[in-house]
Every structure is written in C-alpha cells, then in structure tokens.
Specification:
The complex is a heterodimer of chains A (271) and B (378).
Chain A lengths: L22 H15 L6 E5 L14 E4 L5 H11 L4 E7 H7 L1 H10 L4 E6 L2 E2 L5 E2 L23 H8 L3 E6 L3 H12 L5 E6 L3 H7 L5 H10 L1 E3 H4 L4 H4 L3 E8 L5 H12 L4
Parallel strand pairs in A: 1-2, 1-3, 3-4, 4-8, 7-8, 9-10
Antiparallel strand pairs in A: 5-6, 7-10
Chain B lengths: L1 E6 H12 L3 E4 L6 H13 L3 E4 L3 H13 L4 E5 L1 H17 L4 E8 L5 E5 L4 H6 L8 E3 L4 H18 L3 E6 H5 L1 E6 L43 E3 L14 H15 L2 H4 L2 E4 L6 E5 L1 H16 L4 E6 L1 E3 L3 H8 L4 E6 L6 H8 L5 E5 L8 H14 L1
Parallel strand pairs in B: 2-3, 2-4, 4-5, 5-8, 7-8, 12-13, 12-15, 15-16
Antiparallel strand pairs in B: 1-9, 5-6, 7-14, 11-13
Helix pairs in contact in B: 1-2, 1-6, 3-4, 10-13
Classes of the chains: A alpha/beta (271), B alpha/beta (378).
C-alpha cells in the first residue's frame, strides 16, 4: 500500500465534472480500494462506456479504455477473456449500464466473469444535460420529464443478483469509506462483482428537483439510507423509503475464465 | 499439403486459425453461423478463446477488447448483424484496433432472405459507420480464396491497424469445394508492431514513417488511454481544431500510402479482351462461366475481378477503361460498385450494369445475353 494519489494522471486534472458532483468521491474510493487491495498497476485495466462517469478512466493511471455508450462490459469481457491474468475494472453510469447497456449487464452477471463493476448512479443523464434515466425515481423531474417521470426505476442490485452476479453491494458518495471497503471486497471477489455507488448531481438532478446544493444531497444520502446490518434489527415501518447499504449479496459460483481454462486443459489433454 | 472437401465458411475459420487468430466472439446468424460453430470447436484446441456473446454489438465490442489485450481477434455475421456492429466498427477504425469482421452477405434489406445470397452490403462495408473513416474490404470467390483472403485480412489489419471486412456471400460461404490448404509454415503472417522501449518514451498514437503507430498490449506496462473521442497523439481527448483534423488525415493517409499494393485484381481471358465483365465474390463465378461461353461464340470477353473492393481499385479500373470497348458490371445488388466503376471510367467506354436482387445467383446465360448487348452497342 502507498499513497492512492499516485494512481491519478495528475497532468489530466482537473476533471470535467461540475462543482459539487459526487463522481470525484466515488473515483477516489475506487483508487483507494485499488491501492488497499494491492493490485498491480501495470496489470489493472479500467474500462468505461459513455457519460459523465465514463470519463473517469482518462484521469487514472492504468491501461484505460473509454468505449461506446453502454458497451463497457462487452469490451471488458473480451479483454478479460483474452488475458485472464489482467484485473479488469468497469466504471459506468446509470444510463450507460441500466438503459443502453442493460443487456450486457445481465449477461456479464449471468456468466459470472470476473469484472469489478462500479456504477456511478446519479439518477440522471448528466452529460446530455439532465434527461431521465432508468434510475430516476417516479415523479421526479428531468429535462425530458418536465411533468414528472412516469416510469418506475430499477433496483439495480436486485437485478444483478437475480441475473446471477455473485457479489452485489451498494453505498453512496456520503458513505465513502464504506464504499471503498465494498470495492476492495469486490476486487478480491472471484466472479462478477457489482457495486452501486449513489452519487449526487447537483447541476441537473438536484437543481431541477430542488434538492439543494451538494452538501444537502450528501446529507440526504445519510438520512435516507440504512446499512444492511442495521436494517436487520429495524421494524419494517422504519425501513420504508430507505436505501439499504453494504454487502447485499455474496456467493460462490464457477468463474467464467477459470471454467474456460479448465475446458481448454480438458480438451487438449493437459489433465 | 492437406486436401479436403470444405465449405467456404469452414475455410474462413481455418484461415483465421492459420493466421494466428485466437479470439472469436460471435452471435448466431444465417448464413455465417458455421464460422462460429467451427471456431467453437477449433479455438480451444489451439489455446484460443471462443465466446458467444449476448448480441452482435457485444461480439464486436469483445473482439476489440481482446485485440487490445494483444490477441488477433475476429467476429462473423450477416446483414442484420453487420448493421448492429457498425458503431463499434467505427470505434475500431478510429482507435486503430486491428480486427477482422466477416460478413457473409444475404439478401436484404432488413431480415430479407436469410438463406439467399446477395451483395447488398458493399456500400455499408464502406460507409456503414458514421464519420469519415478508413476501412478495407476483401471479397473471396472460392473456398480456397476464402482461406487465403482471411489470412490476408489479418495481415492487412495488423500491418495497418485498420479493421478489415471479409465481405463474402452466401454462395461462397455455403459452397463446398475440394481445396488444398497450404502448410502452416508456408504462410506469411504479419503481427502488429509493438513498442519495446521504456514507458516514458511511448506515445501511443504517434505514427512512424508508415503512418502506423506502435501498439502496446494492455497489461504490458505502458498504461495508456484509448478513447473513441477525438484524441491527441497521447490518446487523450482533444477539442476540435488542428489536432482533430490531423488525426483524420493521418488515418486516411496510412491507407492511401498502401493504395497501389491494395489494388488487387484477378483476371481471366483479359489479355486480348474487347469487353470486360467486372464481378467479384459469388457473382464472379457465373461471370467467369459467361466469359467462357462468350469466348466459345467468338466474343472476346474477359473477367476483371477485384479481390480488394475497398479501397476501390481506381488504378486498375482506369487502365481497363483504356483497354476495352465496354464494361459489364455484374453484382447481386442494384449497382453499388457499378457506380464506382462509372466514376473511374468517366465516360471513356460504356459501362452497363447487370444485377439480380431476387436472392438468386445471376446465371451465365443471362450474363452472356447482357454482354452481347454491350458488344452490340459498344
């Protein structure tokens, strides 16, 4: 372990992110986790799609791949399967992974391929100035939902778990230390690891919905969430409307690239 | 020398293995599926990887990811799937990631006639993805050539860091012929040039004299950035301006520099021909038969068959215009390369099109009749 700040591409800072955006906190948690997990910087690749969150790889010092909208997991699957010794981290946003990339998300989870996926969920399409996403709660306002969003939002963690993901966790930009711990566990997990990181977008989502400035939105995360350990002890009426944070699911299942290696060994007569 | 009865799609799969392809991602689609089936069996035998992805878009994405890891990669599809791959194909072209995309053409548009041949994706192969971009497309006409041009697709893609489309069709893909495959040791294989210097001096998108930058494998310690945004020599996003223009100009120049070498045309009976049949891929087989029929009737015809259609063989077609009295273009489309031939011939001799778009291969008799028309008016 060293100073996680060595992992930034300092000459590329500052980021393009707006003042008050939570993405910097989430990216910081990712780098702290990489550092704590002791990953080899030269053997770690970070892949993203399109959107605010997907600009993150440009700022960090690994082999980094900024792909097309929604497809980060599909690119990452090819990279990981071609060279399983690489550690592959996927950073994506809620529009990128829950809407246009939803199919890749469920199939990466189903394969249980070892990719650590961190979703920066700010409930909105920020890069295109505030349209509603599959993670925008019903009734909330967005530039394409000027009368309130009619659609129901996903519970992404439930989705990934149902699809076969073997590590599923959630935290927020407020709970940055917990977030880092969950990413560390995701990075050391054998299989598809999924971490949802709620992050504030004061510029579009917050302003349009009158949620206040960044500190107010962070305080909202604090007040409207409960850890899974605490949730176990609380009566249902006190849990209503609260997000559950922490390690929501962890299980063991055959990992795809390991299974592929076994198959190769079997048919080549190596075993 | 191995002699086998083999299908075009199978020969393509074997050619890919022979070329050193060790990663294939695909999705089932007629009439290309045999390529995926053959490689699902063959790749693990040679230590390679096969994966059936959740869709066509994902399989195009996966081969780009694998190629960045340093592994020669391929996917195969047909019309509807080729449409879906276009965005990521543009990514590969813009980010200079070598890969081979096989399109076994079937009759379209849309779902069309899935089991019938066509050559309706010729312009899509050139301009299917958005933006000005370099691309290479090869058209085999036989089972053996499906093998050879698959190998060549990898060589060109690796040498130039440009995605190569092997644009075959249902006729070539499903036809069976007796083929002699060359021994592995006799093939010339090209690998991308990789950096071997220190990380500090590696500039990932700075080109050498051939216009092609050195390509580091992900995981090799160079730690560089690849983005589909317009980027500078270091790989990082830049706004529009001189850097953006210079990048696009370099991407085109690296292909333009090889233009003469890529002007590859096979001919039959062209030495003393007065009339040429311009045809490629499956349609060229009927065209060759038509040329023989014409010769038997005393009509001095020849076959002019480009093996590389993109970049278009301007030089050879221009020479052809100075040599013959007329050209008949035969395609299983409504005139996609016909217009290119017209552009280059530029009115010097008549250029007439004979196309079929009903899912049938044009017959030699019909081509002969069209050729006689050209001869009468020429």
């Amino acid at each position: 372990m060293g100073d996680f700040r060595r992992l930034y591409r300092h000459h590329k800072l500052p980021t393009i992110w707006c003042p008050g955006c939570g993405h910097g906190i989430v990216l910081g948690a990712v780098l702290r986790a990489v550092d704590e997990a002791g990953l080899d910087q030269d053997k770690t690749c970070v892949v993203s799609g399109i959107g605010c969150a997907s600009r993150a790889p440009g700022y960090i010092d690994f082999d980094t791949l900024h792909t097309t909208h929604g497809r980060a997991l599909a690119f990452a699957t090819g990279l990981k399967l071609a060279k399983p010794e690489l550690k592959v981290i996927v950073v994506t946003g809620d529009g990128d992974c829950a809407a246009i990339g939803g199919n890749h998300l469920i199939h990466a989870a189903r394969r249980n391929i070892e990719l650590t996926t961190v979703v920066f969920n700010n409930n909105v399409y920020g890069m295109t100035s505030g349209q509603y996403s599959p993670m925008t709660p019903a009734g909330k306002l967005a530039s394409t939902a000027p009368y309130g969003n009619l659609e129901r939002s996903f519970d992404l963690c439930e989705l990934v778990r149902a699809a076969g993901g073997t590590y599923v966790a959630r935290s927020t930009a407020y709970h940055a230390r917990l977030l880092k711990d969950l990413i560390v566990r995701g990075l050391t997990h054998k299989g598809f690891a999924f971490i949802e990181a709620l992050t504030q977008c004061p510029t579009y989502y917050g302003r349009r919905n009158r949620l206040g400035a960044a500190p107010d939105m962070l305080a909202w995360f604090k007040e409207n969430s409960v850890t899974i350990q605490a949730a176990d002890k609380l009566p249902p009426e006190q849990l209503a409307g609260k997000m559950t944070l922490g390690e929501l699911h962890s299980s063991e299942a055959p990992e795809y690239t390991e299974e592929y290696a076994k198959l190769t060994a079997r048919i080549r007569g190596d075993v | 020398m191995t002699v086998r009865l083999m299908q075009g799609n199978e020969a393509c799969a074997e050619g890919a293995i022979a070329a050193g392809m060790r990663f294939f991602a695909g999705y089932p689609i007629t009439p290309s599926t045999e390529i995926a089936e053959a490689l699902a069996e063959r790749l693990p035998q040679v230590g390679g990887k096969f994966i059936q992805m959740e869709d066509e878009i994902a399989s195009m994405a996966a081969i780009i990811g694998a190629s960045l890891a340093g592994v020669k990669s391929m996917t195969a599809t047909s019309g509807p799937g080729f449409s879906l791959k276009q965005e990521n194909l543009g990514f590969a072209s813009f980010c200079e990631v070598p890969c081979v995309v096989v399109n076994v053409q079937r009759a379209g548009p849309s779902t069309g006639l899935p089991t019938s041949p066509a050559q309706g994706d010729v312009m899509q192969a050139r301009w299917g993805t958005h933006g000005d971009h370099p691309i290479i497309a090869l058209c085999p006409w036989s089972v053996r050539e499906a093998f050879d041009l698959t190998v060549e697709s990898f060589n060109l893609s690796e040498a130039l860091r440009i995605p190569v489309i092997l644009l075959t069709d249902e006729v070539v893909g499903h036809m069976r012929e007796r083929v002699e495959l060359p021994p592995a040791g006799e093939l010339t294989l090209i690998d991308r040039k990789r950096p071997d210097g220190p990380r500090e001096s590696y500039v990932p998108f700075r080109a050498g004299s051939d216009g092609v930058p050195l390509m580091a494998d992900f995981g090799a310690g160079y730690r560089y950035h690849v983005t589909g945004l317009t980027h500078d020599e270091h790989g990082f996003p830049v706004s529009a301006g001189p850097v953006a223009g210079a990048l696009l100009e370099r991407l085109h120049a690296k292909l333009e520099r090889r233009r003469d070498d890529l002007d590859r045309v096979a001919t039959l009976e062209m030495e003393d021909a007065e009339f040429a049949v311009f045809a490629y891929g499956g349609a060229a087989r009927s065209a060759a038969a038509a040329v023989r029929l014409a010769r038997a009737e005393g009509l001095r015809a020849g076959l002019f068959r480009p093996q590389v259609i993109w970049p278009f063989p301007d030089r050879s077609v221009s020479r052809l215009a100075g040599k013959v009295r007329g050209v008949l273009t035969v395609e299983m489309n409504l005139g996609q390369l016909h217009a290119e031939v017209q552009r280059v011939v530029c009115g010097r001799v008549p250029v007439v099109h004979f196309g079929r778009v009903d899912g049938e291969l044009p017959s030699p008799r019909d081509i002969l009749a069209a050729l006689k028309e050209v001869a009468r008016s020429g």
